[in-house]
Amino acid sequence: MASELQVTTIKGVPTGANANQINIPSGQTLYAPGHVVHAVNAPYSSYGSFSPSTSYVNTATLGTITTKLANSKIMLITDVPIQTQDVNCIWTVAVRSSIDSYASNLVKKHFVRYATNGHETGFTGLTFMHSANQPAGTAITYRYYVKGTNTTSGSGWYCTDAWGVADATYQFDTNMLEIAQ
User: Fold this and answer.
1) What residues does 140 pair with on adjacent strands?
2) Which of 179, 165, 162 has its CA nearest to residue 127?
3) Which residues sit opposite 173 in a β-bridge?
4) pLDDT tens digits along 118-170
5) pLDDT of residue 68
6) Are 80 and 170 spatial neighbours (Cβ–Cβ below 8 Å)?
7) C-alpha 26 chain-centroid distance
8) What value does the mean pLDDT of the chain take?
9) Would the pTM count as exceeding 0.85?
10) Percent helix, strand, coil in the chain (nearest 5)?
11) What is the 3-state secondary structure (H, E, C) of 22-60?
12) Taking CA 141 as the corner, what is the angle to CA 140 and CA 142, rounded to the nearest 5 degrees?
């Protein structure tokens, strides 16, 4: 049986161990559009090099989040970098998801490495809001796909570059926030 409570203000009890708090019991969900439902942190400490390609190459798995609510949005915040050489190339980093088996780009970011005139923009991560529109309980995995505009010698990329890192203790992160709609 469904019921509806209409109030102007809800206040927690002003005294005691949980003073001024409104607690939602475990197993229950508070649905409040625009609020974060849950957050997932996915550390990234892998490294590898990739050959030059003018086609998108699966470069990094950023992480997985399982939706708690239907039709929510996922905010993806990552600092996983892509390193390239100065080879007069425009690079494109795309984010794809497992929802469509990584077939389409959700977002593309371009960065430039022109040795001839010193124009360079590095790629140090991105923020993206994904309107996933999936049922509750859907696991969504995100990946970087990278390509360059040319395939000259040395125009491959690293994700991430571990040269000279003796103990490989560095770590990058991807945070995924599910937001109720």
Assistant:
1) 65
2) 179
3) 43
4) 667 777 889 999 999 999 999 999 999 998 887 666 667 778 766 656 555 67
5) 93
6) no
7) 27
8) 86
9) no
10) 0, 40, 55
11) CCCCCCCCCCCCCCEEEEEEEEECCCCEECCCCCCEEEE
12) 120
Amino acid at the residue 120: E
Q: HSE of 152 in the Cβ direction (CA atoms, 13 Å)?
A: 13
Tell me how far apart the alpha carbons of residues 22 and 19 are, in angstroms, rounded to a whole number: 9
* Nearest-angstrom CA–CA distance, 73 and 38: 11
Name the nearest CA neighbour of 181 among 24, 67, 35, 38.
35
Q: How many CA atoms lie within 13 A of 164 on its CB side?
A: 0
Beta partners for residue 83, in sequence order? 158
pLDDT tens, residue by residue, 72-85: 999 999 998 888 77
Collapsing DSSP states into helix, strand and coil, what is residue 99? helix
Q: Which residues make Cβ contacts (< 8 Å) with residue 31, sequence separation at least 6?
A: 69, 180
Number of H helices, E strands in the chain: 0, 12
Cα 133 to Cα 112: distance, rounded to the nearest angstrom: 33
